[in-house]
Amino acid sequence: MRKYFSGLVGAVLLCAALVGFAGPAWADQQTMVGVYTFHQDGLPDAEWSIYPNCVPVVGDLRAEIRDPVACILHVSAFPATVVPSGDAKLTDGLWAYTINTMDGLKCPDGSTAALKEYFQFDSQTLTGTRTISHSQVCGLPATLDKKPFTLTFARPLPLPVTEYPLICEPGGLRRCF
């Protein structure tokens, strides 16, 4: 029994160590603040004004944990004809947002159909992927088109941003306001 128990403890410790070294994928991501140049080959450059809005994670109720998992990046794009705006959340280790436009696809006959755009980007490398898709509509086949893009920091936002706008009470059960 003792041999079995020590082997079990060793296996549990080994698994815990491996999980500890792997670390979460979101640990490398940061919140972004500022105006960035959005560049995708074949399109004119656009600007993304990005500002975060975060909520402190309470953890064990003793201290706030400031973690990008509890943030949303508001992406305001200009011009909107090049790239749409959206609210990005940390998803599978990357910032991501989806835009569904009911009349985003221009059909050959002049009518319109639904279009879906999915943006994923990395705050460390400032690279991302834009996926545009639509179903089989108006005589066009269903399409899934992935295009890489880059972001380049252009300048700070014109107004200061409070990343954590909520203030939480100290100690005990915490109330944020």
UniProtKB/TrEMBL annotation:
Keywords: Signal. The keyword Signal applies. Residues 1-27 form the signal peptide. This is Secreted protein.
